[in-house]
Amino acid sequence: MSDIEFSETIIINPTPQFELSPYLFMQFMEPLGTTDTSVEAGWDFAQNCWRDDLIEAARELSPTLIRWGGCFSSYYRWKEAIGQRSRRKPMLNLCWGGVETNQVGTHEFIDFCKQVGADTLIGINFESDGRQNWAHPACGGVRAAGPKEAAQWVDYCNNPSNKLRLENGAKEPFNVKLWQIGNETSYESHGYNADETALRTKAFAKAMHEADPSIKLIAWGDGEGWSAKVMDAAGEHIEHIAFHCHFGVPEFIAKNGHRQDPGKAWGMLMNVVNMPQKRVNEMRAEVRDFPVTLAITEGHFVMPSRNRGDVLSTWAAGVADARVMHVYERNGDLIKIATLADFCGNRWQVNALMIPTPKTQLKTYLMPVARIMQLYRKHIGEKSLNLTNIPDGLDVTASRTGNRIFLHVVNTNITKSVKTLIELSGLKIIGGKVFEIADEPFREISEYEPALFAPKEHPLHIDGKWTFPAASVSAVKLDVNESNS
Prior knowledge:
alpha/beta, 13 helices, globular
């Protein structure tokens, strides 16, 4: 590195603050029917197993936690998707359209999580969240399930002696420790209201804890006053309050304005971070009087555009997602579960992993948002740190594990690099590396360039000097020891 005067300084206070949860990098798997055949596209029906390329890509992404559920949970009867495949009962996907074969059920989902090294979170059928159009659909039948069915699912997964699971070939319990009660319950007027949600949450929580007292429960609380009512009724059973954190974009970007005016689109994308910050502040206020933490069990870009927006395939969207992740890290004292994307599929560009279909020699690849989650997941400390100075144009978070300190750095400038000097109060740098993603902001990834936006590794000199390229996201790893000065 040339001998340049570095006037921009990143100053880190190395005193550990709060613990950062590894579950900030959750992924979210939901069978999306004809909308985006996420699960069905990932399953090899000829071999009765997950596609090898999906497993390979998921291992590269390295999620810490994967959630099964979403709106699909509101009409999912889990017993229909276990046992002999020839006897499994197909179901109508009432929200997303089409028919689900149920060839992927509890056993297959647990197997997927084990293969990729992720813990498991299951969303149960919360009496169809009170929505009668799902509970008793026009096609007939009853799709709602009560506390008894939820408790049976817990027992099936976690009781070493569960007869039905043993008959179905799983000798060892699945030990699913995280379960969610309710999903987007407050989002429609024809479902349960806050009072009904609170009472039914208590009934479900009691039944599920009777089946396994060790499980941790997540309750739905996204709505003004909902968290308080749920916690007043069932707080003794609840570990986390769930909310969803979607962030939209101006109409200019939704109409692919980035192709006409990249500079204008870039500025708008960098300002997207204000929306999740506002949502987090609102939820902080909602739960401030209760001994509970927050779980963002779904969250991603939302825009009225083709397959949720072409811009989401660009590196610029990845940079914007990194800024959102910084919000979650800074609020990691309260946020213990979070995600930036849906998990996998063959159509929606809000996915972390994109599955090429029909199945050819082309392989599942990581979208820009997945590159961010992969980069930060692999290079983050156990406890948050404060920064006392951040150069203009940079968005920086810091964390620490022992004598290793990590920085997550976004250069929000579209054309300007930022030369910096990294300093730590009372510590000196004895070694370091920078894992960097930098590219043309509106270059788009596809299955024909699957390695696009993969991070590049560089050594960092002990003088702490580094230049962060324009429109870049970096993870900096510093080895430190006590300064003698």
